[in-house]
Hints:
Elements: E1 2-9, E2 16-19, E3 26-33, E4 36-40, E5 43-47, E6 51-55, E7 63-67, E8 74-81, H1 85-91, E9 100-102, H2 106-122, H3 126-148, H4 155-165, H5 173-180, H6 184-195, H7 199-217, H8 222-228, H9 234-245, H10 249-257
Antiparallel strand pairs: 1-8, 2-7, 3-6, 3-8, 4-5, 4-7, 6-9
Amino acid sequence: MVVTDAGFFPRAEGHGRRRDRGAPETIIMLCVAGSGWIEVGGDRARVGKATAVVLPGNTGIPHAYGAALEDPWTIWWCHVRGTDVPELIGEAGISNARPLIGLVAVDRLTAILDEIITALERDQSPARLVATAGMAWRLLTSLAVDRRSPEQGAPLEQAMRFLEERIDGTIRVPHLAALVGVSSSQLSKLFREATGGRVLAHHVALKMARARRLLDTTTLSIAQVGQEIGMEDQFYFSRQFRRLHGLSPSAYRAERKG
Length: 258
């Protein structure tokens, strides 16, 4: 699998594309705010908040999509291709006739896409492309899980959902492990295998994904954004944000909206 392009469009006024023969790559878009529309083979559907759009590649079927005139969508997106992509999107129940998925784990998915974008911005060396391919695989399998079993799952899935539902809280690994029926070491191993990092690092990534979304789509102050993700101390929030993104929350907001 190869990620050929990825990006983020906040309040994408006037955004739209039309391809008379579809695209060679599979296109994945996550709408996290606002709304838009999609048209595949002449059939049009509305795309609202917390919805994924997946357009299978190499089909030759015309498609088009765009932001709504009022309250245009905010989307994260990527283009992928590879021999394993059709099987993965098939697992998610996706086809040209069913290109939309209602999302449960919005912050988890945007966190993965942000990792992809950040990696591609650094360089496109072979090692980096292999890493982004792994991230894209996680993205597609997460979409399949969202459609197949939004309320159930193995210990890892249960733990991830618990973290997503408590973005404004703090988590202790032993407590989380007990909740999902495994030991702390087992849970840590599951997270390392799935995300490449620690349990608490994943929780911080979810918090920062929510923070980015709030910075992009609301007028909340920096302190209020920190409070929304459980970081009451504005300066602590700013330090954590800068550590992960290389710039302060206010600089991030100005860069994205400037």
